[in-house]
Amino acid sequence: MRKLMLAVGGSLFLVAPVSQADVVGLGASVSYWDSDLSGQAADNGDVVDVENDLNLDSDSNANASLYLEHPIPVLPNVRLNYTLVQQSGRGQVNGNFGGVNFGGLDVQSDLDLEQLDLTLYYEVLDNWVNLDLGLTARDLSGELIVKEALTGTPSNETTVDAVIPMGYLAARFDLPLTGVSVGAEGNFISFDGDSLHDFNAYGQYEISLIQFRAGYRQMSIDYEDGNDRLDVEIGGPFVSAGVSF
Hints:
Blueprint: H1 9-13, E1 25-33, E2 36-43, E3 46-49, E4 57-69, E5 77-93, E6 96-97, E7 100-101, E8 105-126, E9 129-148, E10 155-175, E11 180-191, E12 194-207, E13 210-225, E14 228-244
Antiparallel strand pairs: 1-4, 1-14, 2-3, 2-14, 4-5, 5-8, 6-7, 8-9, 9-10, 10-11, 11-12, 12-13, 13-14
Signal peptide: 1-21
Protein name: TIGR04219 family outer membrane beta-barrel protein
Organism: Marinobacter adhaerens (strain DSM 23420 / HP15)
């Protein structure tokens, strides 16, 4: 497996933090993401279109996050984020995929994408304009299973599995005294032909300890693991609810 290097990673942590939380802050949220999938998967040089050949559609998405902010200088704040995307579909593969000859047979396909992010970040600005910078370690696991629809054989399995360093950036603009804000956040890396980008933009309303968000999330994965490659985009609207203390 090739290891990704993040060229900008060191420079992010050279940015001196100019703001720390006055007290310990803790927050958590869960969200629903109505996502669509497009792109390709490759195995040993054979390529299928996940949308047009496999007809993959979203079955379920699980998204949850947890963060801890503190007033200790120098030490970064911590955020955990979990995403699970499961899609399945019935389509047709004409010819070979991954050395398996499907010969125009109807196929049943299942795609599971799971990722766990550990983000260490600093609050550069913390007032009505909020800006966070940091680094994310993403544990990415993906599995695409393609099998003949009626018998289950022949079948093919394409997998990617890696821990990937990524840059992290988050910005939010608060409208004072209203509880309303708009923001965007994302993780990104591009190196040696591989790239991963995960961005979302949102509007937020906060009342007491409760936060409600609605927005759009776009995730792009172009990653090669040995003979297997995923080059897909997942995007769509999301809504979330969270609490902060």
